[in-house]
Amino acid sequence: MYSYSEFDEAFVRERVAQFTSQVERRLDGSLTEDEFRPLRLMNGLYLQLHAYMLRVAIPYGTINPRQMRQLAYIAQTWDKGYGHFTTRQNIQFNWPKLEDVPKMLQALADVGMHAIQTSGNCVRNVTADHSAGAAADEISDSAPCRRTGLPQVYRPPGIPVPALQVQDSSPRAERPRRHPRA
Amino acid sequence: MSRRFTPKVVTANRLREGDVVYLTADDRWSPFHHEAELIEDEAHAQMRLLHASAQKLVVVGAYLADAKAGANGPEPTHFREEFRTLGPSNYNHGKQADYA
Q: What is the pLDDT along chain B (100 residues), one digit of tens a residue?
């Protein structure tokens, strides 16, 4: 399980308070959509084809029962009673109302979760086989690798991540590629 | 010779809910494409778009979408807009479910 330090938790709480104010200012017209768009994206909130969408980070794709129950509570309280798990093992809520999103972020923060760094040009997650460390036929346990890798690119929240070397094993890309943030 | 103007509707998303909406001839925002004003004049289309874009506390991202006259009102001509009239295409959990 990924767990935050006191600094991280304080940072997340501060971001929730900031975003709550930003939503209020968008709804009263103090912020234009052009000003608000990058702010909502930094907090994982998209405006998609049919509605708003809030993407929540699930580090390593692993959560504890309390967090899972909180996700269910959020879905039932402020969405349509369900969410969609993504290919990066995060979760999306596809029907939130803008004014409810700060409450959703607050509920996430209460169980050590957030939606920071879930959009844009950034590392979304570090994932591995969900049975890593538990499968009888595995050659090696990849879980320690993800636990080592994620903090390098994922924390502290909101701080720009360093450049990352990505080794692609396909014949077309034999050399490591340098990506600024992905 | 100038190209013939393709009829349009004005569409956007509601600021608070994010729902897809269409501008009607009597200045309402309707969730139904067939209630939209079908605009067949280019200058009028630009005026209606300006009118929509000025409603910054009501809608987000207003734009003109191609449409055609149908039996019950305007119909979309592009599959993207057709998706927007209904909701997600995998199963009924968008507008299909809400307005059924």
A: 678 899 999 999 999 999 999 999 999 999 999 999 999 999 999 999 999 999 999 999 999 999 999 999 999 999 999 999 988 888 888 777 777 6
Closest alpha carbon within chain A to B85: A50
Which of A52, A80, A82, A99 is most worth mutating to test chain B (most B CB atoms within 10 A of its CB)?
A: A52
Read off the pTM. Answer: 0.83
Q: Do B13 and A47 touch (CB under 8 A)?
A: yes
Say if A99 is an interface residue toward chain B (CB within 8 Å).
yes
Annotate chain A with DSSP letters as a single string: -----HHHHHHHHHHHHHHHHHHHHHHTTSS-HHHHHHHHHHTTEEE-SSSEEEEE--GGG---HHHHHHHHHHHHHHSSS--EE-TTS-EEE----GGGHHHHHHHHHTTT---TT-SSSS-------TTTTT-TT-SS--HHHHHHHHHHHH-STTSPPPPEEE---STT--S-EEES--
- Which chain A residue has the Cα nearest residue B18? A51
Best A26, A28, A40, A49 member to test B by mutation, with max B CBs in 10 Å, is A49
